[in-house]
Design a protein that fits this description.
This protein has 304 residues and is mostly beta strands. 12% of the residues lie in helices and 49% in strands. It folds into 2 domains: 138 residues; 114 residues, Lipocalin, CATH 2.40.128. It is built from 3 helices and 20 strands. Strands 12, 13, 14, 15, 16, 17, 18, 19 and 20 form a 9-stranded antiparallel β-sheet that branches. It has a 5-stranded antiparallel β-sheet with strand order 3-4-5-6-7. Strands 8-9-10-11 form a 4-stranded antiparallel β-sheet, with no helix packed on it.
């Protein structure tokens, strides 16, 4: 998700430049994911969803929110809201979107639910929903290997109702037309560079110039399951896709926050270099990423 907050007039040119850079980086995969995500979010923000908390049993969202009096004549309101947690993918031969909706029924709880919708021609239709919990925290949602996975923070045995602290990872499968809890799939990295967080140490250009970040752990990448790419570029978090084919490697950053990093930051150069990677190799446990046109980025496993 792109943070569209105001960052000041001096940062405007920087934001435009980074936006252009991200669209350029995404180009090798020929995807229009940023646009597609915006269109999808618009559609999901104005759909009608089943709800156990509304009098009609339905919550027709408008702009991502629905409100109604909690009881006839009451000043308190039941509020149903689409959260920022959204993931797309495929389950079988179906294009699906998994999303989280939170409901505050003006009582003692705040309830989170998982909804699954699927693409039918030029619209999205409801499939099913599943309860996630009361006053939990949702940290991440993905659709991978035919399952919906969620990273949550839930209540431990000693937690107060306000403040969950226990990490939890849950998966849901689609059986028929129903969402059911499933076991976590076994992850089998297809190459030794997958699954590890790699911290940037330096880049050497063909002309011999060398760029070294002062804080390597502020510039990292992780090649995750199902081709998902996670990137930290100094003060920004980014993500996208990757492909490994033998010694060949292509990265595509498709979305990023757009905070204005300090002037000495190497965030833009780091993202630009990632876009030109075409091969990888391991040397003495270091990850070497070769750049199109020459030059090499060198990474070590984070924490070493």
């Amino acid at each position: 998700m792109i943070d569209r907050g105001v960052v000041g007039h001096k940062a405007t040119g920087r934001l435009v430049a980074i936006t252009f850079l991200l669209l350029t980086i995404a180009a090798p995969f020929g995807e229009r994911m940023a646009w597609a995500e915006g269109e999808l979010r618009e559609a999901l923000s104005n759909m009608t969803y089943p709800s156990e908390w509304t009098r009609s049993g339905r919550a027709p969202l408008a702009g991502g929110i629905y409100e109604e009096p909690a009881a006839p004549g009451s000043a308190s309101k039941t509020v149903v809201r689409l959260t920022d947690f959204l993931a797309t993918g495929r389950i079988g031969d179906q294009a699906v979107a998994a999303l989280v909706i939170v409901t505050d029924p003006a009582g003692s709880g705040v309830f989170f639910d998982l909804y699954l919708v699927r693409q039918q021609e030029h619209r999205w239709d409801m499939v099913d929903r599943a309860q996630l919990g009361d006053r939990i925290r949702v940290n991440k949602i993905v659709v991978e290997r035919g399952l919906i996975g969620l990273d949550l923070t839930v209540h431990g045995p000693r937690d107060g109702t306000c403040c969950p602290t226990e990490p939890s990872r849950v998966h849901f499968a689609l059986q028929g037309e129903r969402l059911v809890k499933a076991s976590e799939p076994e992850q089998k990295p297809s190459s030794p560079i997958e699954g590890q967080v790699w911290a940037w140490q330096h880049t050497v250009r063909v002309d011999g110039t060398r760029t070294t970040p002062t804080e390597p752990d502020h510039y990292t990448l992780r090649l995750g399951p199902d081709g998902h790419l996670d990137v930290r570029a100094d003060c920004n978090q980014a993500g996208g896709r990757y492909k490994v084919e033998g010694a060949r490697l292509m990265l595509s950053v498709t979305h990023s926050t757009m905070a204005a990093c300090p002037p000495e930051s190497l965030d833009r150069q780091f993202l630009a270099d990632l876009a030109s990677i075409n091969a990888w190799r391991l040397e003495n446990s270091n990850l070497h990423l070769d750049l199109t046109g020459g030059g090499t980025m060198v990474f070590t496993a984070a924490g070493r």
